[in-house]
TrEMBL record:
Organism: Pristionchus pacificus
GO biological process terms, semicolon-separated: ribosomal large subunit assembly; rRNA processing
Key word Nucleotide-binding present: no
Protein's UniProt name: Ribosome biogenesis protein BRX1 homolog
Pfam families the UniProt entry points to: Brix
Function summary: Required for biogenesis of the 60S ribosomal subunit.
GO molecular function, one term: rRNA binding
Localization of this protein: Nucleus, Nucleolus
């Protein structure tokens, strides 16, 4: 009987444990369902406010140098609505970028293309209908390189500031719209913060280039401190489609980096050739001077102005006598004056000694 009672007690305890576990699971399911409902409600609220669903794909080509990669990472950090992608092969066609962006559910794209491991180009365009703008990027300074005093909250929304020149010409107005749609963070984006504490400035320089800078708004007095990065964009072409299509605008002032390097190389070669020519001319001149020194040249000036020649003309002799008489008179007058001065000086000295 003792063994039977022990088995019965063990069964009763096991049943009680199962009942407790079932109660705990029921409570946990109720709490999890409540929490899931709350999360779903919050997401629905966010989605109802998040109307602008712009997403920007930011990536680069293979062979990009360290400066291009750091600039790309800075752009991703500045834009909470940006997405990354692995590097694209240089041999791939440009219209493949639109397919990659559609797969990533992005509407805008910033593509950094590096050529010859030193020339950086930025392609910025709209995937759906275009246009696409091709820039040459110069004077790149990243955040880590500058080490500015400004500091902004990650994910905060920026204010976009444009130069007044953007509204004067049609191609600048089109570029302004592309920059606005790409760099502006959508309102109520899930990865953004509900704060505005920095400014993206786009200004046009006198040499027709777009200068980008990022400033922090310090306080209510609207004092600015630069955060970085900073770079200069030189417009090359504007295409009608997404990384393809007709050329809507081509900058007549644009000079490719290869052409500019060729011009600089030609200038250096011309300067070197000019220097060599000057050296050769100097050597030839020096040789001529040495040859002239060795030659004996008769001096006709000495014969014309020789004072030891005898004068045969009577008029000339008379003139010479008159001139000689005048000269002797002047000399005698000077001598008499000097003698008088010397006598006076000696007399004055004698008087001083006597006194």
């Amino acid at each position: 009987m003792g063994k039977y009672q022990k088995l019965k007690r063990a069964q009763i305890l096991a049943q009680k444990d199962e009942e407790r576990m079932s109660d705990v699971e029921a409570l946990s399911e109720e709490s999890s369902s409540d929490s899931e409902d709350e999360v779903d409600k919050k997401e629905e609220r966010k989605e109802s406010k998040w109307i602008n669903r712009e997403r920007v794909l930011v990536f680069c080509s293979r062979g990009a140098d360290f400066r291009a990669r750091h600039l790309m990472n800075d752009m991703k950090a500045m834009m909470p609505h940006a997405k990354g992608e692995s590097k694209m092969d240089k041999s791939a066609p440009m219209n493949q970028i639109a397919e990659i962006a559609l797969m990533k559910n992005c509407t805008k794209t910033i593509y950094f293309e590096t050529r010859k491991h030193k020339d950086l180009y930025m392609w910025m365009g709209n995937i759906s209908d275009g246009p696409t703008v091709k820039f040459l990027v110069n004077d790149v300074h990243t955040m880590k390189e500058l080490k500015m005093t400004g500091n902004v909250l990650k994910g905060s929304r920026p204010v976009l500031s444009f130069d007044a020149t953007f509204d004067k010409e049609p191609h600048y107005a089109l570029i302004k719209q592309v920059l606005t749609q790409t760099f502006s963070t959508p309102n109520h984006h899930p990865r953004s913060q509900p704060f505005i504490d920095h400014v993206f400035t786009f200004s046009i320089t006198p040499n027709h280039r777009i200068y980008f800078r990022n400033f922090q708004i310090v306080d209510e007095t609207l004092q600015l401190q630069e955060v970085g990065p900073r770079f200069v964009l030189h417009v090359d072409k504007i295409f009608s489609g997404a990384f393809e299509g007709e050329v809507l605008y081509e900058n007549p002032l644009y000079v490719s980096p290869t052409a500019s390097r060729r011009i600089m190389k030609q200038k250096k070669a011309d300067a070197f050739a000019q220097k060599k020519q000057q050296q050769e001319d100097y050597k030839k001149k020096k040789i001529k001077i040495e040859e002239l020194k060795d030659e004996v040249i008769e001096d006709p000036v000495g014969e014309m102005y020789d004072t030891n020649l005898e004068i045969e003309d009577r008029e000339a002799l008379g003139i010479m006598k008159v001139l000689d008489g005048r000269v002797t008179k002047r000399i005698s007058k000077k001598n008499t004056k000097l003698a008088k001065k010397n006598k006076k000086a000696k007399a004055a000295k004698a008087n001083r000694v006597a006194n």
